[in-house]
Fold this protein.
Amino acid sequence: PASALALTGRKLYYAVNAFEVPNNRDLYFERPGILRALVWHVPGFAFPWGLVFPLAVLGCVAGVRSARTRAAAVSLGLWVLCYLAAVTPFFVAARFRMGAVPALILLAALGLAHLRHAGRAGWAAALVALVLVNSSFADVRAQNESLEWSRLAEAQRQMGNPAEAAAALERSLERHSGNQVAALMLAQTYVELGRVDDALAWYDRLLEVRGTDPDVRFSRGVALLQGGRYAEAESAMLETLRLSPGDAAAWVNLGAAREALADTTGALEAYAEGMRQAPHDALAYQRMELLLLEGGRTLDGISVLEAAVDRLQTSFELRFQLAAAYTQAGNLDRALEEIDICLHLRPDDPDALRMQRWLNERLGR
């Protein structure tokens, strides 16, 4: 009961404080354009609540003291009290207390219009309210700018702006170097930008605190692959699989590393395991088939793709690759059948249309 009472008191303080407490977005961080001038806070004062609320207190007292405005002041004051009392047990974040604002603005206007009726009591109450709502006890104004910069970076990545995302993540980590989510995202963004060495530096720092995290080891392995460090990439993927044996993507990337190291047998084994772990993922089938074709094992490659399209019947890529394999094997009729299905899936695909014309010419159709 004591803890609950203390928490309720703290939330009541948040409910009237001038700082707009964030929920999933920080208003002060994300305010666009003119809102920068209309919503702001400095030590000891926050606008507009820090001015409107004390004026509303003044207006409530002044309105009650005047017979002409007493009913309005009482009804508006009760509305604010009831609304804040209803919000306080739940969330007191900025957007949830917004319902009290219209009534507060009316009371503030009432106070400005009836200053002479306020009396000493009204001015004293307004002064107490001014100090209280603009104070910063109980970490009320604590902001996590590192988190906000990382959220902005995620939005930039989703918009396809990796350079802007990297800049935002760098600012996030300047404010909190221990933000592991931002560090992992920055390393992944560096990989997208081709800055492999920078990415690896962050992955190494993350491994110091998350050495048993398979996601970090997998991402580091991908960076090593992109940087052409295939032996190290193979080791990184093996370590990932030691921690997470069922990771199909790690098996496929292990195959890619072994393929680059000219270990054909090991690559085929890795691709086969990737297919077993994720039978509905097209990538392992594609990589395995291409490797078999390069090794002159055309019929084996066709068998792999036939099994793949049996599982993934609407995959344009797999069927197009199968048509190419049939063409290489000299089976033009089957190749044309697959291309016709491809064009059913993507009627305007230029590559499929070119192959269809070429096959029809060869078959005299």
Observations:
- Strands lie at 40-42, 45-47.
- The first helix runs from residue 2 to 16.
- The longest strand covers residues 40-42.
- The chain has 20 helices and two strands.
